[in-house]
Structures are given as C-alpha cells and as structure tokens.
Design a protein that fits this description.
Helix content: 25-40%
Radius of gyration: 16 Å
Largest sheet: 6 strands, mixed
Order of helices and strands: HEEHHEHEEEHEEEH
Distance between the termini: 36 Å
Number of helices: 6
CATH topology: Rossmann fold
CATH architecture: 3-Layer(aba) Sandwich
Number of domains: 1
Low-confidence stretches: none
C-alpha cells in the first residue's frame, strides 16, 4: 500500500486524532496517531505486518520485541509473519524490562518494533535491553515515524509511514497558550 492508503486506513478507523495531546515523550502535539484503533482489526494488523515483514524476510530474525502496551500486537503479528518468537518489555517501577520469563539468547537476531516513533525514547529503552542480553539488533521497524525521518536510533529504521507532525515543548506549546485542554491518550506516563 502507499502512504495515502495508510493515512486513509487511520482515518477510516478514527485512529488519526486532532486536538491537544500530551505525548509519551512529554512533548505536546495537535495530532495523535492511535495505532491500537487500527490494530484492533486482525485483517488490518495482518496487512500492516505483511507489508513490514517483506523488508525482513531474508534477515533470519529470531525474535521480535517491542514495548508494552503499544507494540504488543505489532510484535506478535510481525513475528507470526516472520515465523519467529514475539516478546515484549514492560515497565516495572518505571523501568522497562523483560518479565514473564522472556529472554533473548546471546547472538539471537532481533527486530525491535514500535507502533509510532516520535523521539525514539521507548525504542532506545528496548535497544538497551537487547544489548544487555547480547542479542544482535538487525533493525527497528514501526508503523509510523512521526519525526519526519529525523529520529536517529543507531540502527536501520523501516516504517510504513513517515510523517512530519509538529511537536512542542510544553513551555512553548501554542495549544497551551490558547487554553485548549490537553489529553493524554498514550500508554506511558510522561517523565
């Protein structure tokens, strides 16, 4: 599918929100992409992951990992498409870690995933976990890079959509200055 088709998919599922949002990075934005509203439909999740998987079919990925909660469905379906394991990391006392008996074996080829990447904060936390376990990071994948291609993660990044959606530091946010109420739709509390 092309960029316009993906954007239409977000619109059709009411996943492209407009207003005043507090992002998990702590920044503010007038637009928010709620991938969970797209991924709630198994046929759309399958289609998205099939399109992403094509970039990694020849990489012999052993495990796909993403942060809970946003990337759990993405990790699972992408691993299904790549015929490998899917795990996720979650926060415990504010720190991202592997739980539930999940582990990465030394030398395993790992694909790190996130639904929406803005600053890359959650992805960097996952990368550190993979390094601790001595896994080999092959790439980072996601549905949307909302940095406009500016985020640098130290590994190849492949997303289906690259958008430049303006974000603001809270003290510089024009939406705050206009008195527009802020909403926190994500799954992680801001630092």
């Amino acid at each position: 599918m092309n960029k316009e088709a993906y954007i239409q998919m977000f619109k059709d599922t009411d996943a492209l929100l407009e207003g005043h949002f507090l992002l998990s990075s702590g920044k503010h934005s007038a637009k928010y992409l709620q991938c969970a509203k797209v991924l709630q439909y198994p046929n759309l999740a399958e289609m998205i992951c099939r399109d992403l998987a094509q970039y990694f079919k020849d990489k012999q990925i052993d495990v796909v990992i993403g942060p809970a909660l946003g990337a759990v469905t993405l990790s699972y379906e992408l691993a299904r498409q790549l015929n490998c394991r899917s795990i996720f990391a979650e926060r415990e006392d504010g720190v991202m870690k592997l739980r539930r008996g999940f582990k990465i074996e030394e030398g395993e080829k790992v694909l790190v995933v996130e639904d929406v990447i803005t600053t890359g904060g959650s992805v960097r936390e996952i990368i550190e976990i993979v390094k601790e376990y001595k896994g080999e990071i092959v790439a980072v994948a996601g549905i949307v890079d909302r940095s406009g291609g500016k985020v640098e993660l130290g590994y190849p990044l492949k997303t289906l959509l690259t958008l430049e959606i303006e974000t603001y530091e809270p003290e510089e946010c024009p939406l705050c200055k206009e008195g527009i109420p802020i909403v926190k739709p994500g799954s992680r509390k801001s630092k």
